[in-house]
Specification:
- This protein is α/β, with parallel strands linked by helices.
- The chain has a single domain, classed as Spore Coat Polysaccharide Biosynthesis Protein SpsA, Chain A, CATH 3.90.550.
- Helix content is 36%, strand content 18%.
- The chain is built from 8 helices and 7 strands.
- The protein has a 7-stranded mixed sheet, with helices on both faces.
- Helix 2 links the parallel strand 2 and strand 3.
- The radius of gyration is 16 Å and the shape is globular.
- The N and C termini lie far apart (35 Å).
């Protein structure tokens, strides 16, 4: 039986983490064994206390200080033992009920990387400026790396483990998304997109990405087009 490692980076998500873990734990994947790795990235709220009740069910890694999403995901990847690695954000923007469609793609041995696209599936209307920024950096990725994806910044990125074994990630924060995309494409792996549902949060509800992250994404895509 194949094994999927679900990596969940967490920072100050006391409001959502218990529900997110319940959904991930309870999702049925008949053809897959499931490993859940939570990386607490130096949370200062009640996240650590909530995670304690999950210690017997999931693997919990802790960063002493907040280092960023990229750092947390990298820590999780280093400890993962699955054939496939799936990244799950700790909030409720992404629904684990989409796991079956994300993982079904790997029945095809020629598929190595799967992105869940928010623009191909049902989703709540999002902030206009945020969507424009997302589409802009996706366009830049397509232009620089000669591809045709619709959602470079998606939080649902899924990889065969051997794809990531040969890729060194330097990103420490949200620049993980453009860096891993750039390096996967430079390795000549095509990205297979599937539709997912999406329930975007507003900034008042805790959304962490800002316009500055869009500038960093643009710079990251440009940088890794020319260096490794």
């Amino acid at each position: 039986m194949k094994k999927v490692s679900v990596i969940i980076p967490v920072y100050n998500e006391e409001k959502y983490i218990d529900t997110t873990l319940s959904r991930v734990w309870n999702i049925k994947l008949p053809s897959w064994k499931k490993e859940i790795i939570v990386v607490d990235d130096g949370s200062t709220d009640s996240t650590k206390r909530i995670l304690k009740k999950w210690e017997k069910k999931v693997r919990i890694l802790c960063h002493k200080i907040n280092s960023g999403k990229g750092s947390a995901v990298t820590s999780g990847i280093q400890k993962a033992t699955g054939d496939v690695i799936l990244i799950q954000d700790a909030d409720l923007e992404y629904d684990p009920s989409d796991y079956p469609v994300l993982l079904k793609a790997f029945d095809n041995p020629s598929i190595h990387v799967v992105y869940g696209s928010r623009f191909l599936g049902a989703h709540l209307t999002t902030m206009f400026v945020y969507e424009v920024g997302n589409k802009f950096v996706t366009f830049v990725a397509n232009l620089l790396y000669n591809t045709n994806i619709s959602d470079m910044e998606t939080g649902y990125k899924v990889f065969r483990k051997n794809v990531l074994d040969d890729i060194r990630i330097h990103a420490r924060r949200f620049d993980f998304e453009p860096e891993v995309t750039a390096k996967v494409l430079k390795k000549k792996f095509q990205i297979y997109e599937v539709p997912i549902s999406y329930f975007g949060r507003s900034f008042s509800e805790g959304k962490k990405l800002t316009w500055k992250d869009g500038i960093v994404a643009f710079y990251t895509l440009l940088k890794y087009r020319f260096i490794n």
